């Protein structure tokens, strides 16, 4: 955050509560935190005396609560504010780098809806010499310093490119540099949003430009603010709640106890969401208990009733949408973004909502379907009818096609209840009872959050403790702390748990209502307390930005919203300096460059993962998968030792070994061997100090719908398209027509006609293509038929000459056998003998 932004934020934060201190730099997301950086220190409190810094660092004004720090030497720098009185403030151990990264990419996006493209205006800036607008990311054009710097680096050979992570596409500037900027045109997309700006390895004064990872999706519009509409909010004194679209983190809705706010530009600007008068009472307008987002709009849960606020209306949902008119206790959407997935002939739900006894899935255009009742679940789980079984909570797991149902079971229901877990698959519509049972007090309410892993795993929390369930629920327990046996409330001045934040890298933050935070990672069973960052009385949330960085969102009593970057890596390094916890391995690499892979018939997929560790530790790579048992795999391990370090590389190959020849039901066998399987690579040992937890990806076994076949030689560019007709004489038509057939050639469908010598035999060569172009030749047998009914074709070989021992199927015999079917269905793999 810039100095100007920090000053505004501090004026809001300095109301009451305990003293805290923070730091910031001019580079966004603390990308540059080095000996070249100006580190801004801010103390929030009334007892400040002066800053205590090491001799290798200098402070601009030692006695000012807000000042600037520079460190001339890299390493751990211990910083602490000294205060008046016997108390002491906590110190931080800041890790200052000696990096040669000095410059950053700046981008401005211009949307063109008429052709669904986005122009990304790119230049280079030095955060230590940038204009305030550039530091706030509100600049519409580069500053004079940035123009000079960009032109200088361009002269040395610098040129940016935008590289997408999912589809592996590259976009380069189309024109020459203009006014110190490059312009790159990219298509608006929802399935290739993760992008990275990279340039050439060009240095200026020994300084390089850092690559920049960001999310750029199809722009979503916010709901308009209409004069005369009224605020909608949670009850007075409530904590903040938020909703966002998993694949579009730039669009967020935050519900506070005085207003509801929305942003579509990753926290840079906020507007209110209000509702028309005379639909809700004043009490109802200020009693939102849950909020969720979908393509249809913003869902609000108020007094057991679901409402939706769209671009055009605000209305109550009920029986007309196949929902109950009352009694709804929750609504949720997916937390993890899977843009691609394999779903066999169905539509994936957008939201899930539930009552105590029923679960509904919601689809586009406000279509809801009831999928489960507690009566069905009692039968499925063999629970006596006299026992009490209710829906406790519902959440989407990490698997893109599943839904988790948390069930509350009790008999007398006086003291304790047992929480069970059933996972419902939207593709197969099957339920699977999990090895999961948790006994809790009868009045406990548990909130789940699944972690980003292939095997099901989650954290579950009440007001005081966090329960972990790892590795398909085989490792379970209460998250431990150095003292108080895992009771986070006792370590946080008796505050209770507000929310749990989990990112794609395995980081987990537990935020208390008073903004104290605890940190751990997936598959880790204990947590550490982090330094205080925000005042105890300010209401806040933790969210993920489009640059995949963690932000605090603050909402103040004057209905103002402010965002602030949170340096999780620096904060955990500071805490770990005292703990001295080390990562057991030196490096963990793999060649999984995409999170989604197709495996078609006759193909195989190979991946490798490599771990480097100190000799005698005995680490290894674990390969795990989850889903239908439709794949076989072979693993090979290569092991090397050199200079006291071990390198162990595991290669795994996935394939199918299904024989589709001469089967009774070809399509049934194909369907049984089609599905989605999640795979993960992870090290055998792990710690909070490790940078990456694991690598998760999908293997979709089946036909890739993006693939298509073309006849080699045909194209749609090398000819002049015009109205072209040809005549088929009636004597050549199969149906013995009384007149000739006049056919119009379809240029759009077939492309340019292929020119051939009249005397040459034509043998079509079939190629397989996808959105990126040619893949391979199709080397299997295929059938060609004439779609207009002519029958004057001849063959250049016979069955006997081809070596057939018996008469094979022919076009004539198959069309006669299946004369009730269309020509394109008369002969296919299902008829093979």
How much is the radius of gyration in Å? 31 Å
Question: What coarse outline follows from CA principal-axis ratios?
Answer: globular
Instruction: Kindly name the structural category.
Output: mainly beta
Provide a count of the helices: 9
Quick one: how many beta strands? 57
Please give the largest β-sheet: 4 strands, antiparallel
Order of strands across the widest beta sheet?
Answer: 1-2-5-4
Mean pLDDT rating: 90
Q: What level of helicity do the residues show?
A: under 10%
Strand content bin: 35-45%
- List the quaternary state of the chains: single chain
Instruction: Give the N-to-C terminal Cα separation.
Output: 70 Å
Domain CATSPERD/E C-terminal: 729-820
Membrane topology: Single-pass type I membrane protein
InterPro entries: CATSPERD/E, CATSPERD/E_C, CATSPERE_beta-prop, CATSPERE_Ig-like, CATSPERE_NTD1, CATSPERE_NTD2
Domain CATSPERE second N-terminal: 102-187
